[in-house]
Amino acid sequence: MSITATKSPHQLILASAGTGKTFALTNHYVGLVLSGVAPERILATTFTRKAAGEILGRILERLAEAVESDEKRAELTACLPQVNTDRAHILACLAQLTRNLDRFQVCTLDAFFAHLGTLFALDLELPAGWTILDERDAREQYAEAIARLLERAEGGEWVELLRHLQRAASRRTFDAMLATVGDVRSLWLESGPEPWAWLKMPEAPAAAELADAVERMASAPAPLTKAGKPNKKWLNGFDPMMENVRAGNWLALLKAGPTKALIEGQSTYSSVDIPDEVVAGWEVVKRQAAHVLIGDVVRQNAATVRFMGDFEDLLTTLRSEQGGLRFEDLPRALAPAAHSESKAAANGDQNGEEHRASGASGPLASRGLNMWYRLDGRLDHLLLDEFQDTSPLQWRVLARLAEEIIASGETDAQGAALRSFFCVGDVKQSIYGWRGAEPGLLEGLGGTDGHFPGLEETHLDLSYRSSDLILDTVNRVFAGLEDCPAFGDGGPAQWAANKWQAAFNPHSSAKTLPGSATLFEAPHHEEHSQAVAAVLDLAVERVATIVAEEPQASVALLLRRRAHIAPLIHRLAALGIRASDQGGNPLTDSEAVVQFLSLLHLADHPADSMAAFHLASSPLGPALGLTPENMKETAGTVAAHIRKRLLAEGLGAFTASFTNVIRKSADTFGDWDRRRFGQLVDLAQAFAPRNGLRSTPFVEHVRQTNVEDTSAARVKVMTIHGAKGLEFDAVVLPELDNNLILQQPRFLAERPDVFGPLAATTHSPKQVICRLDDELLAIRHEREQLEIRESLCLLYVAMTRAIFRLEMVVRGANKSRKNSTGRWSSLLCHALGSEADDDGLLWSHEDNATPWRLSPAREEGDAPAPRPPVPPFRLASHAGPRSLPRRAPSAAEGGGALCAADLLSPASASARDLGTLVHRLLEEVHWLEDLAATDQALAELLEPLSPDRDLRAQALALFRSALEDDEVRRALSKPDAATDEVSVANEFPFAVRLEDPDGAPYLMNGTIDRLVVFRANGSPRRAEIIDHKTDTAASADELAARVEHHRPQLEAYRAAAAQFLGLEREAITCRLLFLRPGRVVTL
User: Fold this and answer.
1) Is residue 642 located within the same domain as residue 735?
2) Which of 94, 252, 474, 728 could disulfide-link 556, Cβ–Cβ 3.0 to 4.6 Å?
3) CATH of the domain at 788
4) Strand ranges (E), 934-1032
5) What's the predicted TM-score (pTM) here?
6) Is residue 181, in this structure, part of any structural domain at all?
7) Are strands 268-269 and 272-273 parallel, antiparallel or unpaired?
């Protein structure tokens, strides 16, 4: 079917914050499906699974609302006037879509690349059965590759290189090393080796020329004061400069004194003219400094090429061995020709330019592979969301699809286009440069000189999120960047500000909403840490004020870095305000979870007395027989018992077995702990398939994984990056005084054409070293421009998250900051106000409203009468046994507790093996009367189970001896039940869904030793469960104790059997058959 539209089918939507870009994209998608386009012919991509789910949900919701509501259908008709929007047609389309959800291609770019990787695995030489590694396994893969690299002959060289790489890192730890190597590899995947050879070592002056220059500088007459004496300021800078020259301390030479002025192009130092002899000599000395310092960078680049070549070879080997890939490996595999393109571009090769323009690089194109055939049908419509966050490497994969769609020009008989390209983005919200995003792709996509000149470009600046007052504040801050002193006098910062402002149009609101915007100054402190603390304290105070005024408001406290998130959440909790990070916090915010992690830690580290004491002092310790009084003697035995249970039950069931202990310890653990421990059980269940013999990996996983509480807090403390795409009634911004560029770049790269390859890459030396080479300095300035643009984007994103209220907090200053540079606070104070009143208020909007927030009812208008809520449209639930926490009946033995006897007499391996062998023999007993197997036949059954001949003989002897006891014989004989049909099943497996006392569902799975079912007319009437035990019980008291120990397990069997047989629990008899004393006990 065709798309009937009056506009171009190929559209570029430049949508400011809150203007409805997701609406525009879903609207386009709905128009396509209502025009008869099959969903498998549409690919819509975005950058997070949450966003992909939101897009898919909105598509289905939009159609469902149009079916249900005449008003919504009229809105849809207004948006899509040339599409059939009859109710019956929409309903038919919706029904068809929901029946074919598996054919929807609404996904992340990573998911799409993974799909391509699956289709072309052999062509791309990916390992058979490859999978995507999670973060923990990916870290381990990197660590293994580094370890193997360091074992080689060049290991010493690589150690030095890794140390150098880490010099810029804030933490010199193994984690920092992995992160640093990851940073290098991210650039390497894009560049390949050739661009690293761009920087050349400058030629050094001849030794005689250098010596002559030094002598001329040293003999230069010192500038004189008005009194005719040598200028002391000059001498104080000149003498250390010459000492550094003579000693060859070239970096120290560049940082201070007259040299610093010379390298910055100045002719004076301390208000005196620099002598001509010094200026002339400096030109020679500068060449020597450049030879040494830039030469170090050249050598480092060369070492990096060798290191990364070996590292990539080892990763390839590990991928083949393990079958594990990282997401970033896929676009590199799909479009690997970056370095060869770079060489062509660098040499001015016209073929290289044609190659770039076609987008037909990589193994898919070079081998003439039919992508459409492999995709099970061609893609006719490509919808790209958040395009400003796309990297050039990702674009090289997508370019072939986009170019083919746009170049096709296919139309139907009426001239309507059969294929479309739809791209949405906003360069003002490009905040992911650190992971390769290139906003220049979006800037260069459309327009007369763009990559696709035929794109129809639309700007959206009318916000459906924020109030006019909030948007007016945004306009005031960002409309005057060209004249703002925060960016200094010219240079990269001012260029970046001008570039950013060129993409900014004044915003306005589509809604009439109240609002409030203020700028506060915290009390002044000279000490940095105290100044930061004062800002955070004031931010917490402002959040508390907002919550007190509007308890139902959603509030976000947004930060540039994660470092302050946990302390701020703790400070708010101290005021009784529950707050969480977006996506939740690690479960370690619960004491119950922390204590359980100590339990798991003790299992791996029995000698850790701190873990033992922590566990012994908690309610979990006594449940295991561990107390502060006995922990020295019993900690090792408890650890062994934990390991045994983990091995027998599995991580998920073992964790779930402590749920009752947590629930019964109400004096220690509250509702929060019980909820979080329940989430820990779910996390353990999900992790169980990956869990090995040690529990430490799971402990680390818990500490690093954010889990959102189901009763999510209305106050969020999170990074600005995490808030991207979200909105809040009120936003508080406290981290405004950091530099525009938070961290100096580790690497520099030059890409002459944003759609082309990298032409140059290098480690980034200090800025003062970059000044020794004009090209190096130009690349450094280009990187600074990108960093400052991204910093402005980050501030814009932060401010535009607010719907009604925006509060900003800056540090106190002892002088005017209006003309200070390099910080967000400078920009805000210049645009809004820089003089604080006695209450620390720097500025408040003149139209601030009270109340500042509309309740949802008032915002939508007063309804004439309350209506019952309409159930939201959602897909059918797929919750099933896999999604439930699992529990094993054996985990309930002893009520989850361990008695002293268990600690002092732990079961040996031979005792467990004996029980296994005896159970195997009892499987042969259908009815005792029918047992005809000889001892030889029974012994042969045991041979595959144990190599221990004596143990096999002991098991057979115990089996035969037990069958001589009357109680055992009666239990295993066919009952006298003339009116019933009787069946027996040995080792009966089951898995049933049950609910705990709190109503939470879980999956009970296990195996019943012997199940006897009595039926009438084919329906179960009653049942008998017999559980075989090889426990030794010499006295009646010991037997009674063992019965009580096993009772919870049998009750679990009873509950499960009642479920799958459809019987009342009272109709099920449970018996324990003790083979050693030859006794059968009915519970």
Assistant:
1) no
2) 728
3) 3.40.50.300
4) 981-995, 1001-1016, 1019-1029
5) 0.75
6) no
7) antiparallel
